[in-house]
Structures are given as structure tokens and as C-alpha cells.
Amino acid sequence: MKRIALLTVLLLAVSLTAAFAIDVKPTVALSGTATLTWAYNIDTGATGFKNAADGAFRLSLLAEDGTDTHAGTGDAYGSISFANLEFFWVIDSAALALTTGPADADITAKIVVTPFEIGVTTAPGFTQDFFGALEDADIPDRVIENSEVLYAMPGSGYTTPYGTWLTGTFGPAAVTLKVVSNGDWTTNTANQYAFGGETVLTFKPVTLSAGAYMGDTATSFYAKAALDNAPIVAWAGFEGALPTGGTMTYGAGLGLTFTLVKDTTLAATGWYGDGYHGLDLQVVFTEPGDAGLIPMFDTAITFNLLDVGGTLASEWEVVTATGFKIGLNSDNSQYARPFVNFTYGSNTNNGVVDLATAEPVMVATAGVQFQVIPLTLFTAQWASGSTTGADLASTTPSIGSIQFLAVVTY
Asked: CB of 237 within 8 A of CB of 130?
């Protein structure tokens, strides 16, 4: 019976391939790690072993993120597309759960009347957070702890937005008009609507974009310029929001990434405005290890300067993760890798509430890794205390633990 069931599934897969332009690709994937750790707690003198294992089994019948489109031809036609088509089962040993998904796929449809397109589903987006943010309370970092204040864009707060859009493409220019209602005719009793307009001009390697949105509670606008001209990628932009009867809030951003050699980059990004509590600045240098300036050397060095000139006291932070592989055989498949991961900074705000004094933050790990047998990585390391920032401010700081790990990877 099991063989008959499997044959039935495979025949179904073949029939789907014949009927539709869907990439039916049955696959099985296994992944997992198992770790044995012995550690000595320097502060308490306690010792002990710890065993940990995590694995996942995934059976897929469709290729991941498959797509299929049915469209007419000529100067006027309808087009409907299915995206993110997936059908799979996942068993995760850690979660002890069986996951299937997804229940449905993303469906988009439009009417094409060259050179225009009219949206049928779904409602157009009214998101204007083009510049991102450095600080995010979801990041496990004692210094980067303030949530960005997002702009209240007109239409973005609608519970069930419905609407359409019209895009016209004229050479290098694309112009889009949007409209959404706050629910349908059975729920939008206040007749709330939001409108938007966007323009994108592409003159490679430069892309210019601008737009504005208007609703019954606010008006917002943005402009952005982007350059993609190797080895330089850069962007600059501005966004603002003016609540009805309120005061305008704004944000500006600037970013530059320079690729020194393949995969070795130096990047700088700055944000300023009401949503960023002043100026946030980040500089990141990345050296990949396998390729780059120095063979076998890998490092990521990040410097953050936060909340400068705003309503909060300024903060700073340096984060490094560095290692160097020492080859133990001719092809370096066996190696020893001394490493150090280090974070140091000043936690001044503790969220958005000023502390009486700045609290130093330090988290560190240092040791050496050994790859000497297949599928197994040995590590000997010192790891600082998990709440080192508070420890440094006390009279008896936590020193941490000495750890020995063996990790086997499937």
C-alpha cells in the first residue's frame, strides 16, 4: 500500500507538470547538529556536561517559491499569477512539531492596456519606510535597543484596505497612482479613502524615485536617489509626514558601500530625524575569509554611534568578530582557527529612559576552533557572562566560563 500511495503522488506530480507551467520537483532534505559541551564556571566553580541536538526533515513536492502566470496577448488582456507556490511537510526535532504549508499561495492579477496596467488584486501598499533603521528593539543588543518610530502613513493603518492602482510605463519612467478604502461598502461607513502617487526614473546606473500619499488624517511624501555602479553602491533619501492639524515629522538617510575586492566591503550608513532620536551612524568593514584581502582571515568590524543631537543621550558601540584559519593539511580542509568575538559600548538610554550614568557594555568570546575530522568541529573557548554590562558596573563582575565543545553537523 505504501508503494501504491507513493506512486500515486508521483503520478499526480507528473500530471501537474503536464497541465501547468509549475516546477514540480519532489525533494527530501535533512539538516541537523548535535553538540556536546563541558564547561567550568569561573565565578562559581561549577562544572558539567550539556547535550543538545536539533534536526529537521523536509519533504517538498513543489520547487520552493514556484510561480505560474496565465496572461492574454496583444495590447489589452488580463493577467493572473500565482507566486510562492509550495507544498511541503517539515518535522523539527527541537520544536517537536509537524509543519505543512502554505495553506494558499500569493495571487496577483492585473489588466494590461499598453502602456498601462490596472491592479485587480491585491490592494496597493502604502508603506513609506524606505530607509530602514539601525536601532531595533528586536535585536539582542544592550546598546541597540530603541525601536524606530515609524511614520503613520495615510492608509497604512487601515484594518482591511481594498483598492486598485494604475501604472503607466513610458520609456525610463514609471508612474503609479493608488487608491484604497478603509474596508468595503459594508464596513467603510465613514467613507475613508487614501490616495497615492509614485514615480520611478531609471537611468542606469542611477534610479530616482519620489512619491506622496494623502488621506483624511495625514499627508506624507518621499524622494530617493540610488546609484549602482560597481564598486560603489550608494543611496540618499528623505521622507516626511504631516498629520492633519499636527507638526511635520521627517527622516533622512544616506548610505555608501564600497567593494574593495570580491566580497570585501566598507559600508557607511547614516539616519537622521524624529524617528531615529537624532543621528544614527554605522560603519561596517567585512572581510569574508575564503576570498578578500587576506586569505584565511575573516573579520566583521562594526562601529555604531547612536542618538546624537536628539532627545536621548548619545551612545556608541564597537562589535568585532574575527578569526584566522591556520591550515593543517595541503588543501586547508583541516585547520585551526583562533578567534575572538567582542562587543563594547555605552548603554546610556536603557530603552528610552535615561540612566543616571552610562552603563558600560561588554560581551566577549575568545578561543580556538579545530576542524580535523569530517563533519565535526571542536572548540575551546572562554565566554564572558551573559549580562556583562550590569556586571561591569558592579564591584564583583562576572568572569564567565571556560567551555569545550564538539559539534557534529549533518
From this structure: yes
